[in-house]
Specification:
- The protein is α+β, with helices and mostly antiparallel strands.
- It has one domain (about 5-20, about 70-235): Cyclophilin, CATH 2.40.100.10.
- The chain has helices at about 35-40, 85-95, 190-195, 210-220; strands at about 5-10, 10-15, 65-70, 75-80, 105-110, 115, 145-150, 160-165, 180-190, 230-235.
- Strand 5 (about 105-110) and strand 6 form a beta hairpin.
């Protein structure tokens, strides 16, 4: 089963496995309550709490920096382990293992998300089956924030990550299909993320089954090539 962040259907955004649907519809969002002074100070230049979670968020005193060197330019990401411990741990494990090296930005939906995280090579391919437990959804899914894709139910995230092109707080809705959690944020190079090539289906991107099964041959066959992550490294 494969993970893809799906478009809005009947005013609901759902992340499912191996499915592709029409492009996301615009959804009106409620005004955001102003965060408390303590929360603002705590998360300054990092992440903002979801509306209503201002008093529940932990202080983000730990940070790890990751650099994605892509064919479009460099993107610098800050990862906050206290914001979503399970997701941060998995993302940093994947970066350290070389999982994201030489892999495509497989799905770009302008105004919604850019998604990556499929590596068909051994030994990396085995990570797809290593699911991890969901984290609480505490922080806003604002433009530039990162979250893991999952399969429309809890405990199905593994390797695929999306970067939000806009505020997508409705994805934090506390339902089994949604409840996504922010674990990091692009702090440099968001203009590079904006320039990622849109390939494949306008909503679903590249064919995930083909990528997982024989990604090299599949990419070679494409008339329009995706933006590639050349290396992902943890800054020292």
């Amino acid at each position: 089963m494969k993970n893809v962040l799906l478009s809005t259907v009947a005013l609901t955004a759902v992340l499912l496995v191996g499915c592709q649907q029409s492009a996301e519809e615009e959804v009106a969002t409620a005004p955001r309550p102003a965060p408390s002074a303590a929360a603002t100070s705590q998360q300054e230049a990092k992440l903002n709490p979801l509306p209503g979670k201002e008093g529940a968020v932990p202080a983000l005193t730990e940070v790890t920096t990751v650099r994605l060197a892509t064919t479009a330019g460099d993107v610098v990401i800050e990862v906050y382990p206290q914001a979503a411990p399970n997701a941060a741990k998995r993302f940093l494990e994947l970066v350290a293992s070389g999982f994201y090296d030489d892999t495509p930005i497989s799905r770009v939906v302008p105004g919604f998300v850019a998604q990556f995280g499929i590596n068909w090579r051994e030994p990396h391919k085995a990570w797809d089956d290593r699911k991890f437990n969901d984290d609480p959804s505490l922080f806003s899914l604002e433009r530039g924030t990162l979250a893991f894709a999952k399969a429309g139910r809890p405990g199905t995230a593994s390797t695929q990550v999306f970067i939000n092109y806009r505020e997508n707080n409705r994805l934090a809705d506390p339902s089994p299909q949604l409840s996504f959690w922010t674990f990091g944020k692009v702090v440099s190079g968001m203009e590079i993320v904006d320039s990622f090539a849109q390939v494949g289906d306008p909503s679903g991107g590249l064919d995930q089954e083909r990528l997982w099964n024989d990604g090299g041959a599949y990419l070679e066959s494409l008339p329009v090539k995706p933006t590639m992550i050349e290396t992902a490294t943890i800054a020292q």
